[in-house]
Amino acid sequence: MSNLLEQTAAVVFSARGLAKVYRSGEVEVHGLRDVDIEILRGEFVVLSGASGSGKSTLLNILGGLDVPSGGEVRFGDTVLTGADENDLATYRREHVGFVFQFYNLIPSLTVRENLALVTDIAKNPMPIDEAHRPGRPDAAAQPLSGPAAGG
Ligand SMILES: Nc1ncnc2c1ncn2[C@@H]1O[C@H](COP(=O)(O)OP(=O)(O)OP(=O)(O)O)[C@@H](O)[C@H]1O
Ligand SMILES: [Mg+2]
Questions:
Q1: Could you tell me if the CB of 76 is within 6 A of ligand 1?
Q2: Residue with CA at minimum distance from ligand 1 atom 17
Q3: What global pTM score does this model have?
Q4: CATH 3.40.50.300: which residues of the chain?
Q5: SS3 helix, strand, coil % of the chain, rounded to 5?
Q6: What pLDDT, in 10s, does the model give residues 38-85?
Q7: Would you say domain 2-95 falls under CATH 3.40.50.300?
């Protein structure tokens, strides 16, 4: 019984009636339609579905990168759907970790500089020497878009 009570208190995400409509000109694409989801603390969740079924759309909204067209998302007691750009930036910085499908790195910076960007803005960043242990120091010093990026 106490377990159940602890669990109900530990809802990290709850979303109700989530919708996302992408508009391009006259065309409307429904990325999400009436999605309800609840995720508890410590839960390990896998989203699976056909390409185009809305996985990235949902993750972008839960991660504060995008806003839904309808419905409500809560992170703990905070209503994310009421947050402005600055609030969402703070939320992402303090609570969200993303591994992007397309890496979203800055090509003119080296690997180490890309990692160091995070240590500049995060509250309690991992020390850069812990995050960055290059196998080949010469390659790590090259910009990602430079000769070291090939192969
Ligand atoms: N920026 C956008 N503009 C227009 N339509 C979009 C946009 N992003 C996604 N969509 C559409 O929304 C739907 C859901 O896309 P989404 O990228 O969330 O799917 P997914 O499940 O992540 O697919 P994949 O497995 O290929 O990554 C698709 O029909 C997609 O074409
Ligand atoms: Mg996707």
A1: no
A2: 56
A3: 0.79
A4: 2-95
A5: 35, 25, 40
A6: 999 999 999 999 999 999 999 999 999 999 999 999 999 999 998 999
A7: yes
